[in-house]
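Morning. Coffee machine broken again, so started the prediction first thing and wrote up yesterday's gels while waiting. Chain of 137 residues, entered below exactly as on the submission form.
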Amino acid sequence: MVGNSNSTFSVIGSDISIKGDITASADLHIDGTVEGDIKCASLVQGETSNISGAITAETARLSGKVNGSITARELTVLKSAQVDGDVHYDALTIEQGAQVEGRFAPNTQRPAVKKPKETGSSTAPKSPDQTTLQIAN
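Came back before lunch.
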C-alpha cells in the first residue's frame, strides 16, 4: 500500500484477544478483548468488547466494558456501557442506563503533575475523592 488514507479503519473482532498496548493512526473498532492501553484517532467499542487499560482518542463511542481511564475530546457512553475509571473530556454524552464509576473532569482541568508520594506515617483516613455516577432507567 502506497501512502496513507484518512478513511481507513481497523477492526478487532469479537474472537480476538490482545495483551499489549495498541496505537493506531486510523479509526479503530473493537469487539474483542484488549488488556493494554489504546491510543487512536477514533474508537468505537462494541457491546461484547472488554478493555482493561487507558483509552486516549479524539472521539470515542463506548458500549462495552472498560476498566481504566478515558481521555477523549468527544466521548459518548452508550446505555450498554460499563466504565470503571476516571473520565477526561471536552464534550460528554452519557445515555440513560450506562454505568460509570470514576471521576469526571473536563480536559482543561486535568492535573499537570503526578500526585506526590506520601511522607511520614500518617494514619489519617484518605478523603473519598472518587465520585460514583450510575444512571439507570
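Confidence is low (pLDDT under 50) at residues 1-5, 112-137. Going to sketch it on the whiteboard this afternoon.
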